[in-house]
Amino acid sequence: MRLGAMKLHFLAAAISCCCALPALAQTPAQAIPDFSGLWAHPNVGIETPLSGPSPVHHKTGAIGSALLVGDDTNPILKPATAATIRRNSQISLSGQAFPDPDNQCMSQPVPYIFWNFEIELLQQPDKVTILYNHDHDFREVRLNQTHPANIVPSWHGDSVGHYEGDTLVVDTIGIKTGPWSTLDRFGTPYTNALHVTERYRFLPYEQAKAAQARGEKEWGHVGAFDVDPEYRGRGLQLEFKVDDPGVFTMPYSATVTYLISSHKDWEERVCAENTEHYYTLTNYYSDKSAHIPTADKPDF
C-alpha cells in the first residue's frame, strides 16, 4: 500500500472509531445539557431550602463565615450531633477556630466540598469530572454505572451518575471519616452511612440571582470570586440531598447556585501553613504556639 493510501486508510479508521463512541446526547429530542463554563458561587456556605427539612444554619443573630454558631435546635439533629454543634459554637464564640477540613488543609469530603467558590464540569461520554478551585481538587463521576460491591472509603466517595432529561444526577456513597471530618462549616459530623445525591440543572437568571442573594444574606459575599457583572444567561444550580441515619433524624436538602465567574481562567489557590494570617479578625489557627516547622541546622 502506498504511503498516501496508508494515510487515508488510517484517517478513515480513526474517523470510524470516533463515530463509534457514545454521543454526548441521549436522543436528538433529548440532548444532554452542556454545563461548560467557569461557574462562581461567591460565598462559603450553602442556601437553605424555602421549605422542608433544612441543614444546620446560623443561630439567630450570627452570620458570616467567622462566627460559626450553628442552630443546635434543628429537628434533623440527633442529641449527640446537636452536642457537637454546641461545642463547636462555644469555640467559635471564644474567638478561636475549631478544626475543619479547610483550616487544617485536609482533603474535603462530600458535601463539605460544595463550599468552593468556583467549579467547572468537564462532560465526557463515560464520565463527568468536576473541578474545584480550592487546592486544584477534583471528583470523577462514572456515568451509567453502579457502585461496586466493596467500596474502599475515600474523601470524595464513590460517585456514579446519569442524565435525567436536562438534569445530571450524581449518587455518592463510601465517604471516608476521620479526625476533623465534617459535612458543613459548623462541624456537623457524619458516619460511614452518609449518602449524598446531587442534581445539577440550569435555571433562569433571575432565579439564580435570588438564590445566591439568599445564601449571601447568611454567609456574606466574597468579592474576590464574584460573578461576571455583564452576564445575564442561565444559572447552574446544584440541589443535593443528605441522608445519614447515624447523625440525623431525617434526610435534608439544600442548594448551591452558580453564575458565570468574572474570572476567565483558573487561579491558583493552595492551602498551606500561615500562622500569621488573620481570617476576618479571627486567628486562622487557634493554637497561639503554632509555628512553621524549622530546623536548628540544615540537613545538607
Brief account:
16% of the residues lie in helices and 22% in strands. With 300 residues, the protein is α+β, with helices and mostly antiparallel strands.
Q: What does this protein structure show overall?
A:
It is a single chain. This protein has 300 residues and is α+β, with helices and mostly antiparallel strands. It has one domain. Helix content is 16%, strand content 22%. It has a 9-stranded mixed barrel with strand order 1-2-3-4-5-6-7-8-9. The protein has a two-stranded antiparallel sheet with strand order 10-11. A hairpin with an 8-residue loop joins strand 8 and strand 9. The chain is globular, with a radius of gyration of 22 Å. The chain starts with a helix and ends in a 17-residue tail after the last strand. The N terminus is likely disordered.
